[in-house]
Amino acid sequence: MQITLSQDQYRKLLNLVYLGNWLVNSYRSEERLEEYDKLAEDIMSFAPSAGLKDRVEFDEFEGRYYPSRKLDEEMRSLWEEYDEDVFWNMLIDGLAERDFGRKYNGESLDTMEWEEYEKKIEPFLKKYEKEVDEHGLERLEVRLIS
After folding, report:
1. Which residues pair with 57 in a beta bridge?
2. CA 77 to CA 54: how far, in whole Å?
3. How far apart are CA 117 and CA 100, in angstroms?
4. What is residue 64's DSSP assignment?
5. Rounded to whole angstroms, how far apart are CA atoms 19 and 42?
6. What angle is formed at CA 54 by the lines to CA 53 and CA 59, rounded to 5 degrees?
7. Please, where are the H alpha helices in the chain?
């Protein structure tokens, strides 16, 4: 297969590949998904010929391409934005699901229709969305119950 891209399209593809591989592998220490690393490296290998050598580094000892510091810094704000959004959404969802479970403990989620679940959890979601929008973490506390 052959794909023809403009320099701008390739730059954006390189950004997407970097971000995708970051999402898949950044939190892994030992067991990286090598197939994603390899594909990212294959895409990065075209950067010098595309006039984007400053976005990659070639490690001569390993014979592999890696994202450059410049590429990393350019993409950092995007993944930090993503992390921020995921953090708040997971916090809100987790607190809402906890409170939902406490209130409807006797009901089986396995048999509950999706529409009913959405209707019943919505007040909990709205409560925590409002709290987070107005106060962030300021009023949230962890209480240890012994």
Report:
1. 66
2. 18
3. 9
4. E
5. 15
6. 75
7. 7-25, 34-44, 69-103, 114-135
Parts of the chain with a pLDDT under 50: none
Tell me the CA end-to-end span of the chain in Å, nearest whole number.
62
Token readout for 44 is: 């990065």
The reported pLDDT for the residue numbered 18 is 96
Would you state the pLDDT for residue 44?
A: 96
Kindly state the tokens that stand for 10.
């390739």
Q: Which of 19, 34, 23, 24 has the alpha carbon at shortest distance from 72?
A: 19
Q: Write out the two tokens for 54.
A: 């400053």
What pLDDT is attached to residue 30?
Answer: 83
Q: Identify the pLDDT of residue 112.
A: 83
CA distance 118 to 134: 23
* Every domain of the chain and the residues it spans: 7-67, 77-135
Contact by Cβ (8 Å): 40, 13: no
Q: What is the pLDDT of residue 106?
A: 66
For the question of whether the overall pTM of this predicted structure is more than 0.85, the answer is no
- Tokens standing for residue 62: 């390993």
Q: Which residue has the tokens 């350019």?
A: 74
